[in-house]
Amino acid sequence: MKLKTELPSPGWRGVGGEEVSELSETGMKQATEINGDDSSAPPLTPGSSPRRERGDRAESAPDALDGLGDAMARATQDLPLVRIGGRVSAVTPAFYRVGGLSPFLKLGERVVLPANGDARPQIGEVVRIDAGGATVKPFEGAIDARLGAEVHRMEAVSLHPHAGWRGRVLDALGKPIDDGGALPLGERRVFPFAEPPPAMHRARVGAHIRTGVRMVDLFTPLCAGQRIGIFAGSGVGKSTMLSMLAGAEGFDTVVIALVGERGREVREFLEETLGEARSKAVMVVSTGDESPMMRRLAPNTAMAIAEYFRDRGEKVLMIVDSVTRYAHAARDVALAAGEPAVSRGFPPSVFSDLPRLLERAGPGCEGAGTITGLFSVLVDGDDHNDPVADNIRGTLDGHIVLDRTIADRGRFPAMDPLGSISRLARKVWSAEEQGVVRRFLALVARFEETRDLRLMGGYQPGHDADLDQAVTIVPRLYDALRQDPSSPRSRDPFREIAGMLQNG
Ligand SMILES: Nc1ncnc2c1ncn2[C@@H]1O[C@H](COP(=O)(O)OP(=O)(O)OP(=O)(O)O)[C@@H](O)[C@H]1O
Ligand SMILES: [Mg+2]
Fold it and tell me: What is its EC number (predicted)?
């Protein structure tokens, strides 16, 4: 039997007495489709569905009642019985102001402009509160407010993640945007803008994880719970590198936030690049044409989902492509909230928003799982010292630098081993491996610093044994390190490189 259930809409009245009947937001009106055989079962709400996570046993009557009670409690959490309203007092292309609500609002809460004629209800977030009113930026669509229109208060965005979200694609608000139908909802309610676990209660970074990408495993090895950035100018291979890393074995769930990507790239990433990893990946997508509110929310929503899987004890891989576009969205919101721009056009709150997001990746509290974070960072005009890149680099436990000159020579991944570091590499390498890596890096450095000299014909073999060795080995090493998304994954990079150098 296919059963469609909906929670009754209580039909509250706004300040002006009109009824807000249709709100599509999760939690305002929840509907789900459940496939089951028992037509006599009580009406099921999302959390009490047979797919809910409290064990697999068949539901006895008290269980079903408990489930119904839980679901009602959850639903009413989202549905206040008294609605507080204010009125629009100013409208600009970037935000609108609401009077009369300020004493009742907190930053980060939402308000809704009720449906008006053909226009759907428009939900926005409170980004500034002062004595004169509150500043609101809508999540979706152009500003649709009229002066004097009523605005009602809602709670902050929240989600009910569920293991069945793997393989699904969501928007920043947690609504499905693929063809997979309604999302199963879990028991726990989480908020996108959560705090990182307290530093002293966090477990230590976990064991080494092989990614299968030879250059990364060799020069910047990753540990479970590590946070690493991929820094590069545009079009140098950040997204390709991330998609190769998304396929790493050893992670239970991969959560991917695509922020500010081109719409075309999202489908490409999903259908071609992600490959087998897709079935264990939850994707949260906010494309470049969506509002800054959605782009700012998307990585936080994804992080809340990653935290849910981490708290189930899983090894989670969290990917954000790109953090820079998240920073741009946070800048737009902060400027609309009236903050001054202090550092190359960025208001100060951006530099606290960034570490707050990145710090949430890492190991959980003792006994929980880990979130390994991979964050792509677009460096403006290949300037690796711009303030956003600098701030992010300082927060992370390592960085992989992709270099345009290497990409221009057609060598991919275009990773610069000399500029890339993993702060946890020493935990991973054996003494012997560390010696090999040091030797490789010394040879690469020698080879690169003499590149111009050699091109001008100033190199004669036989005068400098180190340089002779670099000239023989480094081009073969570079060849051995080439890898594209369709190449086989690397199993043991040290052995493979040794084999290729001997055979070459
Ligand atoms: N490992 C690789 N093997 C082969 N080609 C690659 C590889 N990585 C990147 N490329 C090439 O570089 C191009 C750009 O890569 P990608 O889209 O990953 O860059 P990006 O840094 O994410 O770009 P943007 O800044 O526009 O998001 C790809 O279309 C592909 O041609
Ligand atoms: Mg990209």
Answer: 7.1.2.2
